């Protein structure tokens, strides 16, 4: 019975992840896209929980679904929604991107099933008890991956400053018209 419940949760979370991912690139309203992104990150957190990666799931919800997506919503609200469409008349780039992403995911699923059926995924890797623990993740962030960790924080800072600068220029353009 427990196995059936795990599979049911996995199927629901996987479907929610795919559906919200397609919704992120399909919605033309950026607010709805950001809300779909929150749903996508939440369903990914459920998948992490099924993999017994509790710390990664908590970080997914707190950092990405909480802080980063709220920053996206703040920047979208500050800049404002642009009503003009650059490529009116044909399929939007979001539709093209959604179809391309769905094709990539389908290809990945087919390859994974083919490798599993062929036995290529049967390898034994020794995983220590500390794998995925907050202490081990912190040690990796502050030793092996310190440069990538700091570059990511700088990129997020530049994105926030860029959003404020773009928003201030948009507000000046609207007030002069």
Write up what this structure looks like.
By secondary structure, this protein is mostly helical. The protein is 78% helix and 0% strand. Helix 1 (2-26) packs antiparallel against helix 2, helix 2 runs antiparallel to helix 3 (54-79) and helix 3 (54-79) packs parallel to helix 6. The N and C termini lie far apart (66 Å). 8% of the residues are buried.
SSE map:
Layout: H1 2-26, H2 30-50, H3 54-79, H4 93-118, H5 134-142, H6 146-176
Radius of gyration: 20 Å
| Beginning-to-end CA distance, first to last residue | 66 Å
Low-confidence stretches: none
**Overall morphology:** globular
Q: Mean pLDDT score, rounded?
A: 77
Helix content: over 70%
Q: Give the helix tally.
A: 6
Oligomer state equals single chain
**DSSP strand content:** under 5%
> Biggest β-sheet, characterized?
none
* Classification by helices and strands: mainly alpha
Number of strands: 0
List keywords for this structure.
177 residues, mainly alpha
Write a concise synopsis of the structure shown.
This protein is mainly α.
């Amino acid at each position: 019975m427990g196995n059936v419940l795990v599979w049911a949760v996995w199927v629901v979370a996987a479907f929610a992840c795919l559906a919200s991912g397609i919704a992120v690139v399909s919605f033309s309203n950026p607010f709805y896209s950001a809300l779909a992104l929150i749903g996508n990150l939440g369903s990914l957190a459920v998948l992490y929980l099924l993999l017994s990666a509790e710390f990664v799931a908590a970080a997914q919800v707190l950092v990405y679904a909480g802080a980063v997506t709220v920053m996206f919503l703040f920047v979208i609200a500050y800049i404002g929604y642009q009503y003009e469409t650059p490529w009116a008349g044909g399929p939007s780039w979001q539709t093209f991107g959604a179809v391309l992403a769905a094709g990539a995911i389908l290809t990945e699923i087919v390859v994974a099933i083919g490798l599993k059926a062929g036995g290529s995924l049967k390898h034994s890797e020794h995983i220590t008890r500390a794998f995925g623990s907050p202490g081990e993740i912190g040690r990796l962030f502050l030793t092996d991956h310190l440069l990538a960790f700091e570059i990511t924080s700088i990129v997020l800072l530049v994105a926030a400053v860029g959003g404020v600068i773009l928003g201030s220029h948009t507000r000046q353009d609207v007030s002069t018209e």
